[in-house]
Structures are given as C-alpha cells and as structure tokens.
Amino acid sequence: xxxxxxxxxxxIIDRDALVERVRTDFGVSLRSMSQLSGGQDSDAVxxxxxxxxxxxxxxxxxxxxxxxxxxxxxxxxxxxxxxxPAPLRARxxxxxxxxxxRRISLxxxxxxxxAYEAGMGARQWRTFGALLSQVHxxxxxxxxxxxxxxxxxxxxxxxxxxxxxxxxRELRASDxxxxxxxxxxxxxxxxxxxxxxxxxxxxxxxxxxxxxxQVVCHxxxxxxxxxxxxxxxxxxxxxxxMVRAPRERDLMFVIGGVLADAPVTDQQQAWFxxxxxxxxxxxxxxxxxxxxxxxxxxxxxxxxxLDPPAGRSAARSQALTLFGDAVSPTGIASRAQTFLQQxxxxxx
Length: 348
Prior knowledge:
Layout: E1 3-5, E2 11-14, H1 15-26, E3 30-35, E4 44-51, E5 56-62, H2 68-79, E6 97-99, E7 102-108, E8 112-114, H3 115-118, H4 122-137, H5 157-169, H6 177-188, H7 190-209, E9 215-217, E10 226-229, E11 234-236, E12 243-245, H8 248-251, H9 266-276, H10 283-306, H11 313-326, H12 332-342
Helix pairs in contact: 4-9, 5-7, 5-10, 6-11, 7-10, 7-12, 10-11, 10-12
C-alpha cells in the first residue's frame, strides 16, 4: 500500500483511496501520480497527476478542514484572471471534495519554474505586485466574505515555543544527534527567541485595540509560491492560508522577505511596488507578522525533530536544516528581532 506523507512525515492519504475519490467526485480517471517535493506544509501533500486523457493536473490533499480559501480562490480566479490557478469543480459544483477530515482539490498543471529557483526580473516583480494589489482590492460580498477567517492577532505558537524552550532547557545529553543539534541551535538562538516572545503578546494587544483595514490576503505570498510559466507569466500558488487581514500580512513577504537564502533586495522591493502602487505600511503590523511567522516556523520545525512520526528520519534531518535557516543571521527570527530593535521594541 502506498501512502502519501507530508514534509513532516505525517501520513495524509492512501494512493488507491485518492484515485477512487478523484474518479468518483471529479469524474477524472488518473493514469500516473508523482508527489511533488519542496512544500513545507505539515498537514498536506501535493501530487502531479496525468489523466487517462493526457491532461496534467495538480492534486492537493490537506488535513485542514477549512474550505473557505478554496471557495474564495475560485472566485478570485474568475474575477482577477491570469495569475491565479482556478480549482476544478467537483460534480457537486464545489471547487473541492472532502474525504473524512481531508480536503481534496484539483488545479491545472502550469509548466514553468519557481521564482525562488529562477529569480525574477523587473517586469516579473511588477507583475507580481500588480497581481497582489488586485487581490487586496477585491471586495467580497456575503456569503463569500464569511468564508475566510479574520485576523485576531493571536499566535498560539508563542505558548508552544515557551513550552519547547522549557523542555529543551531541561534536556540532558541525548544519543540522538538530531536532538543534540537542535538543542545546540536552540540555545544559541535563545536571546533572539526571548525578545520575540517578550513582544508578541503586547503587539497583538495593541493591534486588536486598533482599527486597521482588512483586505483579502493570500497569507503565504513569498517567492517560493510564485511560479513563472513558460510564456513569462507570473502565477501565485498555494492559497490555503487565505485570511482577511491588513495588507501587511502579505507585504511582509516582500518587505525584506522571510526566506533565509532569498532575501528581497531594495531594488526588487521597488519593482514590486511599481506594480502594486503606493502603500502606507504600518511598522507595528510588520513587526507582529514577522514575529508571528518566526514562532510558527520555530515551533513547527522543532516539533518535527522532537516528536516525529515513526520512521521518518529524512523529514527530521530536513526540519533541522529549516530550523537552522530560521534562526540564522538572515533567517526570519533574526530579521524579526532586528526589526523590533529598529522600532524601539527591544525587550520586555
């Protein structure tokens, strides 16, 4: 039996069950399947498939129960147009199917390269900026409005990281080299994480008391989710994290970026805003989102190492690399600390 597992090593779905569900719910018969690597969702798999008719599709199976993002993505694909892959409709008329606690979606395969790997020139950065501007400007009428979560400025991972910090501080010598390496890296990043933890709750309280305008946000708009097609088009992928939030939720990914080995330069940022248009960016919102993202990454990667599914050593090794990236001098945790210092939020 072949089971597709997430980047964290969690089993998501049996191959035969997926084939049958796609045939039954979408009327699509599959000839071949190949899981795609590179995604870091702990609860999802992405699979490239070929149908018996020769069409190439992408199947995503997620253990997230939320269906709102797929419904809104379908609406955006129709209203904004090029740049947003439109999910296929199931026989029910909905842009997804549900199997137990899992959500299944199909989109056309777009041939091209990830911007993370290929890089983007001035025209492509401007196109990306214009696309995200259109998304942020899209007005959603009820009932679509209610299908997306709204920003509440709460970061549950803060409590998780505090508990992990206590757990790691109490760890004695381990025979597991990956745990030993995690302990070393965690302790080296201790001051950085302490600064973020000291600020995250207060920032959230301040922002809940404010009245920032919320727009439709992609929620994960870094360049690893940007695809450059063979004709030079720019596509924004992976809409699972959509949320109604201030535009800074997405702009964080461009103003400096979040990827340790692919920071966004001042020139690239300028090209982006040529396409996006003028934006009055709130530094407190940027600080909150950077800190929140850093804690999410740290909690996720550390948990993959300390409490992995059985027999997933490769996933643990990758998680250690990703953790090291997150707390490196160019990683998101270090950037969050630096930005806090720049706006005068240094410690508790």
